[in-house]
Each structure stands twice: as C-alpha cells, then as structure tokens.
# Entry
Amino acid sequence: MAVVRTVLGDVAPEDLGVCDAHDHLFIRSAMLPPGQELDDYDAAVQEATLYADAGGQSVIQWTPHGLGRRADLLPKVSEETGVKLVAATGLHRAEHYAELPTEDLAELFVRELTEGIGDSQVRAGLIKIASGFHGLDEHTSWVLDAAAEAQRATGAPIGIHHELGTGADAVLDRLEGHGVPPDRIVLGHLNRFPDHQVHQVHQELAARGAFLAFDGPSRGNHATDWRMVDCLAALVETGYADHLLLGGDTTTARARLATGEGPGMPYLLTNLRPRLTRRLGEDVVGQIFVTNPARAFATDWK
# Structure
C-alpha cells in the first residue's frame, strides 16, 4: 500500500491535501549570504502558520543531507502548525558544502529513508539531488548514481534541482538507465529555462512519465517566473495536467513572508492559485495542488 512518509509517520496519500511540493523551512548553505540562512524555529513556525491559514495542508521540504534540515525540530513544527511535513535525504551541488560526506552515499540515503536522520527517529520521504548546468559533471553523476541505488532499494521518490532549469533530459536518461521508473522522478525548477522551445521541451519530459515541478515566484528567478503560468497552460492544453507540481522554494530569510519581505510560502495559495484558477479552471488547479502531489510522493516502501 502506497503511503507518504512524513516527519510524524506514514500517512495515506489523500491525507496530504493541499501541498506545497517544493519548499524549505530550514536550510543553511555555504552559498547563502550571512544572515540569510533559514535556521530559526519561531520564524519557521510563523511561516508555516501563515501557509496553513491560507489553506495549505502539507509541505515537501527539499533540504538534503548536510544543509541544516533540523530533523529534530521538524516534528515540533508539524505538531504546532498542523502542517504535514516531508523531509529529504540526498545531496545538493558541491559548492553548497564546506565538506562532502565520505561514507557510501547510497547507504547514507537508505539509512535516512528507513531508519532516521542523524540521531533522530525522523525518516526522510524524498531523495533530493541536483544536476549540473546543462549536463552532468563528476559530482552530479556520483550523486545521481547513489540516488538511483537508494531509490531501487526503497522505492522513494527522487526530486532534482536543475541548475537554472537545465539538463533535465540528461538526468532523466541516467536515472532511467539505472532502472528508476520515471513516475518516481520529480524534475524541479523547469520554469527557470523558458526559451522559445520550452513548451516542447517540457512536453517531451512529461511524455516520458516524470513529474514536472515549477517553483516560485522567487526573488532569485523573477526574470523567468512571470512566464511560469504560460508554461503550465501549455502543458495542460497538451494533456499533461496530471504531471504538474508547484512549490514556493523559499530559500532565504529575506524571502519569507512572516519575518522577511516575501513573497513566502503563502503566496502559492493567496496569489498564484487564484491566477491559475482563472486561467486553467478549478479542476486542473485541484490536480496540481492535491491529486498530483499525492501520486508523486506516495511510495510502496520496500
């Protein structure tokens, strides 16, 4: 029986409800400017509460191993706000780390998915990895291969950060080559590469069976975020509404609504959802926020 692995235990897919399919409550990285890391418990609770007040019921937190996931605090945030949270294992791009793990990556990922993260009993429900810019470098290939091995061992979904939205076809090729089913793969940040052929590129990826995650609006990618609705509409019009996911991808303190300048996690529901409803209709928006996440993140755990 397929279930979603949250920080408070496994739940039925339909219990996810309205889902932010890609976001962060806690993250620290060597790439973040001083003071912009997300590591404040009270701020996380405030942001998640605003999201819940807007109708949000669950968040998939894509912060991977070694970047300040705060697995010890995630259950408390979930209990205090009523928002279901899914934690991630995996590894980001090399530049986010002062020091990379030396142990076998696949074993690390499997342990965090099946036993717990660090000393906690919190199990991850997602493998989050990252691609290179327009291709697969040595670090990316190392992490992708480990993620594929861990996915085959557990059945867990894999979510991919695509650097500036590029390289999704190469990532999908490699993961499928290792036996990962495409419906276990979430291709992230695709709105960050809206060239003149983007609709065709997105349709080809969806046709292969993967989920396509669009994140934002965000400060870092505002130059392309404004085209996201058109990208989604093109995919819906060509029959791929059941492959689409949306997330806020809040990665800096400044981007929070509760304690920063926004737009923050609630924006998905307070601003973007009404726009999408007018353009795509309530049924499609229900698929994107409720039905599709339930399929993408539910697993028959091995």
User: Anything to note?
Assistant: The chain has one domain: 4-296. The longest helix spans residues 138-154. The mean pLDDT is 93.
